Amino acid sequence: MDWLMGKSKAKPNGKKPAAEERKLYLEPEYTKSRITDFEFKELVVLPREIDLNEWLASNTTTFFHHVNLQYSTISEFCTGETCQTMAVCNTQHYWYDERGKKVKCTAPQYVDFVMSSVQKLVTDEDIFPTKYGKEFPLSFESLVKKICKYLFHVLAHIYSSHFKETLALELHGHLNTLYIHFILFVREFNLVDCKETTVMGDLTEVLCGSGAGAGAQNHVKER
Ligand SMILES: [Zn+2]
After folding, report:
1. Which residues make up the binding site for Zn(2+) (predicted)?
2. Ligand 1 centre and the CA of 192: distance in Å?
3. How many Å lie between the centroid of ligand 1 and the Cα of residue 110?
Protein backbone atom coordinates (compact mmCIF):
# COMPACT_ATOMS: atom_id res chain seq x y z
CA MET A 1 0.00 0.00 0.00
CA ASP A 2 2.98 2.26 0.43
CA TRP A 3 3.05 2.85 -3.28
CA LEU A 4 0.02 5.02 -2.72
CA MET A 5 1.87 7.28 -0.39
CA GLY A 6 4.40 8.19 -3.02
CA LYS A 7 3.74 11.29 -4.98
CA SER A 8 3.10 11.16 -8.63
CA LYS A 9 4.79 14.20 -9.95
CA ALA A 10 4.16 15.32 -13.41
CA LYS A 11 6.58 17.45 -15.26
CA PRO A 12 6.75 18.77 -18.74
CA ASN A 13 8.91 16.65 -20.95
CA GLY A 14 10.52 19.70 -22.44
CA LYS A 15 8.85 19.22 -25.75
CA LYS A 16 6.62 22.00 -26.94
CA PRO A 17 3.06 20.79 -27.21
CA ALA A 18 2.60 21.06 -30.91
CA ALA A 19 0.24 23.97 -30.64
CA GLU A 20 -0.79 23.51 -34.21
CA GLU A 21 -1.45 19.86 -33.68
CA ARG A 22 -5.19 19.52 -33.56
CA LYS A 23 -6.60 17.74 -30.57
CA LEU A 24 -8.92 15.37 -32.31
CA TYR A 25 -10.85 14.68 -29.14
CA LEU A 26 -11.93 18.32 -28.97
CA GLU A 27 -13.66 18.23 -32.35
CA PRO A 28 -17.36 18.99 -31.78
CA GLU A 29 -18.46 16.03 -33.88
CA TYR A 30 -16.68 13.76 -31.40
CA THR A 31 -17.33 15.58 -28.14
CA LYS A 32 -21.04 15.29 -28.91
CA SER A 33 -20.84 11.54 -28.86
CA ARG A 34 -22.29 9.77 -25.78
CA ILE A 35 -23.89 6.45 -25.12
CA THR A 36 -26.52 7.83 -22.78
CA ASP A 37 -28.23 11.08 -21.83
CA PHE A 38 -28.13 10.36 -18.12
CA GLU A 39 -27.89 13.39 -15.88
CA PHE A 40 -24.61 12.33 -14.36
CA LYS A 41 -24.63 15.37 -12.12
CA GLU A 42 -27.61 13.91 -10.29
CA LEU A 43 -26.35 10.38 -10.55
CA VAL A 44 -23.13 11.09 -8.65
CA VAL A 45 -24.79 12.73 -5.65
CA LEU A 46 -24.73 10.69 -2.46
CA PRO A 47 -28.18 9.15 -2.08
CA ARG A 48 -29.87 9.60 1.28
CA GLU A 49 -29.55 6.58 3.51
CA ILE A 50 -26.32 5.50 1.90
CA ASP A 51 -23.10 5.74 3.84
CA LEU A 52 -20.54 8.05 2.20
CA ASN A 53 -17.74 5.50 2.32
CA GLU A 54 -19.98 2.81 0.85
CA TRP A 55 -20.84 5.17 -1.97
CA LEU A 56 -17.20 6.09 -2.60
CA ALA A 57 -16.21 2.43 -2.50
CA SER A 58 -18.82 1.19 -4.89
CA ASN A 59 -18.28 4.00 -7.39
CA THR A 60 -14.50 3.82 -7.24
CA THR A 61 -14.59 0.07 -7.85
CA THR A 62 -16.93 0.54 -10.79
CA PHE A 63 -14.77 3.28 -12.32
CA PHE A 64 -11.73 1.07 -11.93
CA HIS A 65 -13.42 -1.70 -13.92
CA HIS A 66 -14.64 0.68 -16.60
CA VAL A 67 -11.33 2.47 -17.05
CA ASN A 68 -9.60 -0.90 -17.20
CA LEU A 69 -12.05 -2.08 -19.84
CA GLN A 70 -11.76 1.11 -21.87
CA TYR A 71 -7.97 0.90 -21.78
CA SER A 72 -8.05 -2.75 -22.80
CA THR A 73 -9.72 -1.78 -26.08
CA ILE A 74 -6.63 0.18 -27.15
CA SER A 75 -3.96 -1.65 -25.15
CA GLU A 76 -2.56 -3.39 -28.22
CA PHE A 77 -1.66 0.06 -29.56
CA CYS A 78 -0.12 1.23 -26.30
CA THR A 79 3.28 -0.38 -26.34
CA GLY A 80 6.76 0.32 -25.09
CA GLU A 81 7.56 1.65 -28.55
CA THR A 82 4.52 3.83 -29.20
CA CYS A 83 4.34 5.18 -25.66
CA GLN A 84 7.81 5.23 -24.16
CA THR A 85 6.63 7.38 -21.28
CA MET A 86 3.31 7.89 -19.53
CA ALA A 87 2.52 11.01 -21.45
CA VAL A 88 -0.61 13.08 -21.25
CA CYS A 89 -0.41 15.91 -23.76
CA ASN A 90 2.84 17.67 -22.77
CA THR A 91 2.93 16.21 -19.28
CA GLN A 92 4.74 13.10 -18.18
CA HIS A 93 3.84 10.95 -15.21
CA TYR A 94 6.28 8.87 -13.26
CA TRP A 95 5.53 5.93 -11.08
CA TYR A 96 6.82 5.84 -7.53
CA ASP A 97 7.54 2.47 -6.01
CA GLU A 98 6.72 1.38 -2.48
CA ARG A 99 9.87 3.07 -1.17
CA GLY A 100 8.94 6.28 -2.89
CA LYS A 101 11.58 5.81 -5.55
CA LYS A 102 10.83 7.24 -8.95
CA VAL A 103 10.45 4.50 -11.53
CA LYS A 104 11.12 5.13 -15.15
CA CYS A 105 8.48 3.30 -17.09
CA THR A 106 6.61 3.17 -20.34
CA ALA A 107 2.92 3.97 -20.52
CA PRO A 108 1.82 0.32 -20.63
CA GLN A 109 4.00 -0.40 -17.61
CA TYR A 110 2.55 2.58 -15.76
CA VAL A 111 -0.99 1.46 -16.54
CA ASP A 112 -0.09 -2.02 -15.39
CA PHE A 113 1.25 -0.62 -12.10
CA VAL A 114 -1.97 1.35 -11.66
CA MET A 115 -4.29 -1.52 -12.48
CA SER A 116 -2.56 -4.16 -10.40
CA SER A 117 -2.22 -1.85 -7.39
CA VAL A 118 -5.84 -0.73 -7.55
CA GLN A 119 -7.00 -4.31 -8.07
CA LYS A 120 -5.13 -5.27 -4.91
CA LEU A 121 -6.75 -2.47 -2.93
CA VAL A 122 -10.35 -2.88 -4.04
CA THR A 123 -10.22 -6.59 -3.28
CA ASP A 124 -8.62 -6.04 0.14
CA GLU A 125 -11.33 -6.74 2.68
CA ASP A 126 -9.58 -4.46 5.21
CA ILE A 127 -9.71 -1.48 2.88
CA PHE A 128 -12.84 -2.08 0.83
CA PRO A 129 -14.91 -4.12 3.28
CA THR A 130 -17.90 -5.88 1.79
CA LYS A 131 -19.13 -7.64 4.89
CA TYR A 132 -21.83 -6.03 6.94
CA GLY A 133 -20.57 -4.25 10.02
CA LYS A 134 -16.98 -4.15 8.91
CA GLU A 135 -15.55 -0.64 9.13
CA PHE A 136 -13.62 1.32 6.59
CA PRO A 137 -10.05 2.22 7.55
CA LEU A 138 -9.29 5.80 8.57
CA SER A 139 -7.12 6.18 5.49
CA PHE A 140 -10.00 5.19 3.22
CA GLU A 141 -10.70 8.58 1.70
CA SER A 142 -7.07 9.31 0.98
CA LEU A 143 -6.74 5.92 -0.69
CA VAL A 144 -9.78 6.62 -2.83
CA LYS A 145 -8.20 9.93 -3.82
CA LYS A 146 -5.01 8.21 -4.90
CA ILE A 147 -6.94 5.64 -6.89
CA CYS A 148 -8.96 8.33 -8.65
CA LYS A 149 -5.83 10.28 -9.48
CA TYR A 150 -4.27 7.26 -11.16
CA LEU A 151 -7.46 6.34 -12.99
CA PHE A 152 -7.55 9.90 -14.27
CA HIS A 153 -4.01 9.54 -15.63
CA VAL A 154 -5.10 6.46 -17.57
CA LEU A 155 -8.21 8.14 -18.98
CA ALA A 156 -6.17 11.20 -19.95
CA HIS A 157 -3.58 9.02 -21.66
CA ILE A 158 -6.28 7.31 -23.72
CA TYR A 159 -7.49 10.71 -24.90
CA SER A 160 -4.13 12.24 -25.56
CA SER A 161 -2.40 9.27 -27.16
CA HIS A 162 -5.06 6.83 -28.31
CA PHE A 163 -8.06 8.82 -29.35
CA LYS A 164 -7.54 7.93 -33.00
CA GLU A 165 -7.70 4.24 -32.22
CA THR A 166 -10.69 4.77 -29.95
CA LEU A 167 -12.41 6.55 -32.84
CA ALA A 168 -11.57 3.76 -35.26
CA LEU A 169 -13.19 1.33 -32.82
CA GLU A 170 -16.16 3.69 -32.51
CA LEU A 171 -15.75 3.70 -28.77
CA HIS A 172 -15.39 7.46 -28.32
CA GLY A 173 -18.98 7.73 -27.11
CA HIS A 174 -18.15 5.24 -24.36
CA LEU A 175 -14.96 7.10 -23.51
CA ASN A 176 -16.73 10.49 -23.32
CA THR A 177 -19.52 9.06 -21.20
CA LEU A 178 -17.08 7.43 -18.81
CA TYR A 179 -15.04 10.63 -18.62
CA ILE A 180 -18.06 12.81 -17.84
CA HIS A 181 -19.34 10.43 -15.18
CA PHE A 182 -15.88 10.14 -13.62
CA ILE A 183 -15.13 13.88 -13.60
CA LEU A 184 -18.50 14.79 -12.12
CA PHE A 185 -18.03 12.15 -9.47
CA VAL A 186 -14.54 13.28 -8.42
CA ARG A 187 -15.72 16.89 -8.46
CA GLU A 188 -18.69 16.11 -6.27
CA PHE A 189 -16.45 14.66 -3.58
CA ASN A 190 -13.26 16.65 -4.26
CA LEU A 191 -11.28 13.53 -4.98
CA VAL A 192 -8.73 14.76 -7.49
CA ASP A 193 -6.67 17.89 -7.13
CA CYS A 194 -7.28 20.33 -9.96
CA LYS A 195 -3.54 20.62 -10.61
CA GLU A 196 -3.78 17.00 -11.79
CA THR A 197 -6.70 17.63 -14.08
CA THR A 198 -5.76 20.96 -15.68
CA VAL A 199 -3.86 19.13 -18.39
CA MET A 200 -7.24 18.01 -19.72
CA GLY A 201 -8.99 21.23 -18.77
CA ASP A 202 -10.05 22.02 -22.32
CA LEU A 203 -11.80 18.68 -22.73
CA THR A 204 -13.36 18.85 -19.27
CA GLU A 205 -14.69 22.30 -20.05
CA VAL A 206 -16.37 21.07 -23.22
CA LEU A 207 -17.71 17.82 -21.81
CA CYS A 208 -18.58 18.75 -18.24
CA GLY A 209 -18.59 22.52 -18.08
CA SER A 210 -16.17 24.44 -15.92
CA GLY A 211 -16.28 25.29 -12.26
CA ALA A 212 -16.21 23.21 -9.17
CA GLY A 213 -19.52 21.57 -9.77
CA ALA A 214 -22.69 23.25 -8.62
CA GLY A 215 -22.98 25.96 -11.21
CA ALA A 216 -21.39 24.05 -14.03
CA GLN A 217 -23.15 24.13 -17.34
CA ASN A 218 -23.25 21.39 -19.85
CA HIS A 219 -22.02 23.33 -22.85
CA VAL A 220 -22.38 20.43 -25.19
CA LYS A 221 -26.08 20.20 -24.57
CA GLU A 222 -26.54 23.80 -25.53
CA ARG A 223 -25.04 23.35 -28.94
ZN1 LIG B 1 -0.21 4.60 -24.80
Report:
1. 78, 83, 157, 162
2. 22
3. 10
